[in-house]
Specification:
Length: 125
């Protein structure tokens, strides 16, 4: 999971490991995508309440990109969320991630809001 996310998003494995450790709440579920029992990607879902789920951190190992895994992972998790009776499914994606935006748009998701996030180290304050 750490390697996949780190390679796909370009973050260090240390940063990614810390991010996952900080975001291990019970309402956040991680799904690992397998092909013949080999991990090829992952996606995380944050269940905000009984009605709303947020899909985020969808990634495919770079060595497996371009083979339809991302679309298959997305379709699978949306199907699962609909079966669980979520009425609102949102996505979290970096606005500069054009391939992800194109994928989400191609399956029917629409942009309804954009946010800019800023981070500063506490030591710098």
């Amino acid at each position: 999971m750490v390697t996949c996310s780190s390679l796909a998003f370009g973050d260090s494995e240390t940063w990614t490991r810390n991010y996952f450790a900080r975001t291990m709440e019970p309402e956040r579920v991680t799904y690992i995508a397998l092909d013949s029992l080999s991990p090829v990607g992952m996606v995380r879902v944050n269940c905000l309440n009984q009605d709303t789920a947020v899909i985020h951190d969808l990634c495919v190992l770079p060595s497996h990109q371009g083979r339809g895994y991302g679309r298959e992972i997305l379709a699978g998790v949306v199907k699962l969320l609909l079966e669980q009776k979520f009425s609102t499914i949102r996505l979290g994606v970096v606005t500069e991630n054009r391939p992800a935006l194109n994928l989400y748009h191609s399956v029917g998701f629409e942009i309804t809001a954009e946010s800019s996030y800023y981070v500063i180290s506490i030591q710098e304050l």
